[in-house]
Design goal:
By secondary structure, the protein is of the alpha/beta class. The protein is built from 13 helices and nine strands. The strands form two sheets. It has a six-stranded mixed beta sheet with strand order 2-3-1-4-5-6, with helices on both faces. The chain starts with 7 loop residues before the first helix and ends with a helix.
Length: 476
């Protein structure tokens, strides 16, 4: 049956009104037939070679894509942009830098291994508690994690020696220097003429471990968070939560939050969400701050199930149980829900503040130099520039000498270490040779005694044999 075509009168009236002729609804058309719909659209479309050919091509593409003609008219293709971003992101991989700070013996290494289900700290590379230094140092370790088709380059920065000294004044300065150094390197990479894809080594999150004393924050905790809260995302953590009862842990959390608010310390704040489900998740996570966690790398048997936890005489503490501790909430926040937000806050807030202050200081120094140059004669200005250049050269020379001395000291230390190791090996080999010589002498003595005994037995046997032969001759 032929489709509806508007009459000439209706078309003329519609044209004068500036409207297109509206096609009436025809229930007798078969919606399941793509060919009928294409013919119907072809009748409605104005006749023309180029238009009809382009319409035919679009309908054939829609047919290949599995779309109907009505959908193909409104389908452009930018709805596929998220898939393109996803494929590029998965191919490029992700980076995340996590800093752990706290006194030794609070379970930092165990928690990291439990969180990422990997042996980042093992016998070959022990944790920070096993590498306590006389001064606070900053060490980092990298591991490439794969989960499905997604790979994550995890960088863990630890601070062995933090809080373990008698005088802990300014022990946070090496941590600040490391964070600002990463910002400086990223800023220099952005300022280059040829900017390639730079590795993001900026610290995205700092897990600060609080000792489970039950009496609130120490002065060291307060000073550290005060000096770093505007440079990095701080997430406070109560370590070894199994040393406290649930009521004690709840009261300890309230005390810590009150002291943080009292000293105006800015810890990581969860973003506001418009979605109800996301807002519920954020509300639950806020209720767990500061996170009271337990770490364990051992698997125990609990009612026939293999779980990660700690076994005590009074029962088993499960690591991945929210009723026992906040480890699961911390892992979900850090990895599943807010890892990207931590990176964005680092890039858009902390790094931008550092960049603004650094550029502002450089601009102000240039302005003061220009003001001073206006009031000076050219000769004095040239003399000042010459002096400044000489000072720069002297400073560079001093820096190079210092670097050379440091490298020489490192080489000497390595040579001394290798010499000590060679002496140790020589002594060990000497001991082994002496032991082998002693064993050979013992074996020789045993052999000689066995030989003498055998010869004595042989002589006795010959004597007995001759005596028996004489007796037989006498008888015969």
């Amino acid at each position: 049956m032929a489709a509806y075509n508007p009459s000439r009168r209706e078309a003329r009236e519609a044209f004068l009104r500036g409207e297109a002729a509206v096609r009436k609804y025809e229930p007798y058309l078969k919606e399941s037939s793509l060919v009928d719909k294409e013919n119907h659209y072809a009748e409605v479309e104005p006749s023309g070679g180029a238009a009809s050919s382009s319409a035919a091509i679009s309908h054939s593409k829609a047919k290949q894509a599995g779309l109907s003609s009505r959908e193909s008219d409104s389908y452009i293709g930018f709805a596929n942009l998220p898939n393109q971003v996803y494929r590029k992101s998965v191919k490029r991989g992700f980076e995340f830098t996590l800093m752990v700070v706290g006194e030794s013996g609070l379970g930092k290494s165990t928690l990291i291994n439990s969180m990422f289900l990997t042996d980042l700290y093992n016998a070959d590379y022990p944790g920070p508690s096993s590498r306590i230094k006389k001064t606070v140092q900053v060490d980092k370790a990298q591991v490439l994690l794969r989960e499905g088709s997604v790979q994550l380059l995890l960088t863990v920065v630890d601070t062995p020696g933090f809080g373990d000294l008698v005088d802990n004044s300014n022990c946070w300065q090496p941590v600040i220097d490391y964070i600002e150094k990463q910002y400086e390197e990223y800023l220099n990479g952005e300022s280059r003429v040829n900017r390639r894809q730079m590795p993001d080594n900026r610290v995205h999150c700092c897990l600060y471990f609080i000792s489970p004393s039950g009496h609130g924050l120490k002065s060291l905790d307060i000073e550290f968070m005060k000096h770093l809260h505007d440079k990095v995302n701080i997430v406070p953590i109560i370590a070894k939560a199994d040393t406290m009862t649930p009521d004690e842990c709840r009261d300890f959390k309230k005390t810590i939050l009150n002291e943080i608010a009292q000293h105006k310390i800015k810890i990581y704040e969860f973003p506001e969400c418009e979605d109800e489900e996301d807002s519920k998740i954020v509300k639950k996570l806020k209720g767990h701050v500061p996170f009271a966690v337990i770490g364990s790398n051992t698997v125990v048997d609990c009612q026939g199930k293999k779980i990660r936890g700690r076994s005590y005489p009074w029962g088993i503490v499960e690591v991945e149980n929210l009723e026992h501790n906040d480890f699961l909430a911390l892992r979900n926040m850090l990895i599943r829900t807010h890892m990207q937000d931590l990176k964005e806050v680092t890039s858009n807030v902390h790094y931008e503040n550092f960049r603004y202050n650094r550029l502002l200081s450089s601009v102000s120094s240039d302005v003061t130099k220009a003001k001073n140059a206006v009031n000076k004669s050219p000769l004095s200005q040239m003399e000042d520039e010459k002096k400044e250049h000489v000072q720069k050269l002297k400073k560079m020379e001093a820096d190079m000498e210092q670097v050379f001395e440091i490298k020489v000291k490192e080489k000497l230390n390595k040579l001394k270490e290798s010499e000590v190791e060679l002496q140790h090996r020589a002594e060990q080999m000497k001991k082994n040779l002496e032991q082998q010589e002693k064993e050979l002498q013992d074996k020789r003595l045993n052999f000689e005694t066995e030989r003498d005994a055998f010869e004595d037995q042989q002589k006795q046997f010959e004597v007995d044999l001759t005596s028996t032969l004489k007796k037989k001759k006498i008888l015969f």
